[in-house]
Amino acid sequence: MKMVRSTKNFFARLFHTRNIIIISPHRTNHLSISGSFQVIGLITAVACIGWASYSTGSYFAARDVLQAKDETIKSVASSRVETSFNYIPGAVPAPAVPPAAPASTLSYAMPLSDPADALSAVTHDKLYARIALLENKVKELRSANVGIIQAVREKTHNKIISMEEIIRQTGLNADVLKKDASRQHKDRPAEATQGANAAGSQGGPFIPAEASGTEDPLGADLKQKLDQMMLLNDILAVLPLGSPLRRGEEESAFGRRIDPINGRLAFHPGMDIAGPVGSPIYATAAGRVISAGWLGAYGNAVDIDHGLGIVTRYAHMSAVRVHSGEPVKRGQVLGLEGSTGRSTGPHVHYEVRYNDKPVNPITFLHAGLHVSQID
Predict the structure, then answer these.
(1) SS3 content of the chain, % helix, strand, coil (to 5)
(2) What's the pTM?
(3) What pLDDT digit, counting tens, does each position of 339-373 carry?
(4) Which of 303, 305, 323 is nearest to 313 (CA)?
(5) Pairing mode, if any, of strands 348-354 and 310-320?
(6) What domains does the chain contain, in order, with CATH numbers?
């Protein structure tokens, strides 16, 4: 009991209530820390230090074990490699098949003169077997490569057919457009070469790709199809396949009609689409604005040059949102629907012109419905 009492007294003296005084410019605070809170804090600190020491020791012990295992594995692997290749001479021809022994000697074993010869023969057989396996792998890879190229070529061919069909649905000649697009692309390699020379010095003899002897006929055919697909993709990018209004109804079609103002037979070079008053009017393809503003009977109008001889016109706008010379993207807002110029009500007069001749816009709208079906 005396020992217990002395122990309690010791802890009472050691962990008695302590006051921490916090002095600020305007007031003084007293913070009391009880003895039990001090004991809990001490136990927590000792536990944290003990756990940190145990974790550190375990980490270093595990690292030493892993390093020892790595050294053992490297040593074993090195000894096996040295044993396997110790007797392999360079450029050794394939061993000749020995002649069949006479029947009277088949029961006798003829030992080799040197054990190294036996090991070398076994190793040579393994080496040639390995070479044969690698040759088979190369053949399999070539076969798989040919299969992949054929699959890509077939998919590319189908996509080319789909893209050409969309162009035909517009009423335009796909072959003529491809020739026009190819002529426009002829200037691009020269520009690319100038850019490369500006970036750094280059040189060397000119050797045409077809004369290098390394061209794979199958790969060359696929490259040609991919180039054709990219050319068609560039053509589709400039074809006006969208609608100038998100919501609208056709009020007047392309072609001959009775003029809505004077009642006489007339030719309508576009189509009239009516929607909610003030609806945004969108560019149906990417291009460059060649005129924007008042255009006589068309009222406020915007003309866009899409290249390849294709121009679209958007007329009777209440407001114009683009300027002449400005590049525009497909779906960009050009202005707002209105009834300016020679018009009987709010609508957008939409024209598509090819080589300065009006063509029926409805064929382009119908063709645009099939664009999303291309894989």
Answers:
(1) 50, 20, 30
(2) 0.55
(3) 999 999 999 999 999 999 999 999 999 998 877 65
(4) 303
(5) antiparallel
(6) 2-70 (no CATH), 117-191+217-238 (no CATH), 249-361 (2.70.70.10)
